[in-house]
Amino acid sequence: MIFNKETAEKTAELLLQINAIKLNPKNPFTWASGWKSPIYCDNRLTLSFPAIRNFIREEFSKNIEKQFGKPDVIAGVATGAIGIGMLVAEYMGLPFVYVRPEPKKHGRKNQVEGFLHKGQSVVVVEDLISTGNSSLLAVEALREAGANVKGMVAIFTYGFAVAEENFKKAHVDLYTLSSYQNLLNLAVNKKYITEKEEAVLKEWNADPAAWGVEV
């Protein structure tokens, strides 16, 4: 669920402007999963643009407090959301921790890095939601560490049905600054893509695993 339409459109436009999101239906990208995709998203690029990262930081901060109340701690999902998560924590005057994909193999073997009391309320910051699996592993690690996870916020979501189902099963409320549908609406209106290309992008979103697979 997006925070609001105005923020969703503004975020989508900023991501397109700096090529954090690239749309290329004619020459699709290949994801690490092996999926063929007409879209590629790298929200880490936002950190290199002060005005954009400040916009994201401030939108996250005000909407986190509006939706969840002020948490005790902000948690970033490694590695993509460490930077923006720390900016949000700084802006809100809150402690920050980050969550590794898996525990370290040495030392204290932490998966949650930073100081976290059992029972503290946490909002998790993520950069991108695809299926939601890796994001929800971070939530699981925080819960195992004794945190009260109030919800998750992300810059962008592809809006896959499987992600919605995964978050529902995990009882995690997810809010995003922008979404795939908002992106497509803006991309057509601003002529980043044609209506024909929009149809291809919608087709991919409906079944990304099968899209572009020769049979």
Describe the structure.
With 215 residues, the protein is α/β, with parallel strands linked by helices. It contains 7 helices and 10 strands. It has helices at 5-17, 50-68, 82-92, 133-144, 161-169, 180-189, 195-206; strands spanning 21-23, 29-30, 36-37, 39-41, 73-77, 96-99, 112-113, 121-129, 148-157, 174-179. Strands 7-6-5-8-9-10 form a 6-stranded mixed sheet, sandwiched between helices. A two-stranded antiparallel sheet has the order 1-4. Helix 4 (133-144) links the parallel strand 8 (121-129) and strand 9 (148-157). The longest helix has 19 residues, at 50-68. The model has no long low-confidence stretch (mean pLDDT 93).
Which oligomerization state do the chains in this entry correspond to?
Answer: single chain
- Number of H/I helices: 7
Q: Give, in order, the helices and strands.
A: HEEEEHEHEEEHEHEHH
* Major β-sheet profile: 6 strands, mixed
* Residues in helix, %: 40-55%
Radius of gyration, rounded?
A: 17 Å
Q: What is the rounded distance between the termini?
A: 35 Å
Family: Belongs to the purine/pyrimidine phosphoribosyltransferase family. PyrE subfamily.
Keywords: Glycosyltransferase, Magnesium, Membrane, Pyrimidine biosynthesis, Transferase, Transmembrane, Transmembrane helix
Function: Catalyzes the transfer of a ribosyl phosphate group from 5-phosphoribose 1-diphosphate to orotate, leading to the formation of orotidine monophosphate (OMP).
Enzyme class: transferase
